[in-house]
């Protein structure tokens, strides 16, 4: 037992001796400022410190890399936006260039078309100015001829007599219409036109004229004059029939009446040339030439103008 106690006391003493340096920090590699290190511990400490330095640098670099990565992600997003916008701008630019090319072509065509139209318009204006001047001359001559017709060939008294005869006939028929019905008028007075519409009578008169039934057509047109149904044309048709019957004095009178009522009719070229021929055949060559010249001046490209020139050549 005493031996055992002695052994335990010795062991405790050595244990305290062995632990004494650690109690004062010598050899502690975990200490902030270790001391009392062996050569091996110094190498370990150096490597440990180097490792910590590397870890710090690695962490710092990792942090920087992560920051750079985030920045690159942001830049990539911005770059993609710029690429999309650039693509859109490129499409818009192409559209604008295409539109400008089309506008340029359209403008060029418009200018070309406008220039052509202006040239055509200038030609038309010059032609119209010439036609207007010629028309003024013709109208002046024609006005003079109409005055000659009114003053020299059918007197006012003759025209008034014709109107009076028509009015007398009108009054007589009017009285009969008041006293009896249309049927009794047709049977008792012998009026072949009673109850016939003016339009139908005009068709009948024209049909008789075309068949050269002048004996029937003349009184039918006289009835149309009495009814005031296209009196200018009716006078012209009666004049034509007297002309073909070679009753030139009567023809001239009716031609004059027709022209006095309406001098813009489509049959005016024929009216003028037939009036001129009738005057020539009645010996009035002076005024006949005036009428024939008027036909040539007023209707230069018509068949009547050719006929008028032939008549003038025969003087």
Write the layout of secondary structure elements.
Layout: H1 2-23, H2 39-153, H3 156-179, H4 182-188, H5 198-210, H6 214-226, H7 231-244, H8 248-261, H9 268-281, H10 285-298, H11 303-313
Helix pairs in contact: 2-8, 2-10, 5-6, 6-7, 7-8, 8-9, 9-10, 9-11, 10-11
Structural notes for this entry:
This protein is mainly alpha-helical and 315 residues long. The protein folds into two domains: 110 residues; 179 residues, Tetratricopeptide repeat domain (Serine Threonine Protein Phosphatase 5, Tetratricopeptide repeat). The chain contains eleven helices and no strands. Helix 2 runs antiparallel to helix 8, helix 6 runs antiparallel to helix 7 and helix 9 runs parallel beside helix 11. The protein is rod-shaped and about 170 Å long. About 9% of the residues have low confidence.
Tally the helices: what do you get? Answer: 11
What Rg do the Cα atoms give?
64 Å
Rounded mean pLDDT score: 75
- State the CATH class of the largest domain: Mainly Alpha
Work out the helicity level: over 70%
- Count of extended strands: 0
**Low-confidence sequence ranges:** 6-24, 179-188
Largest sheet: none
General shape: rod-shaped
Say which CATH homologous superfamily of the largest domain is assigned: Tetratricopeptide repeat domain
Content of β-strand? under 5%
Total tally of structural domains: 2
Structural category: mainly alpha
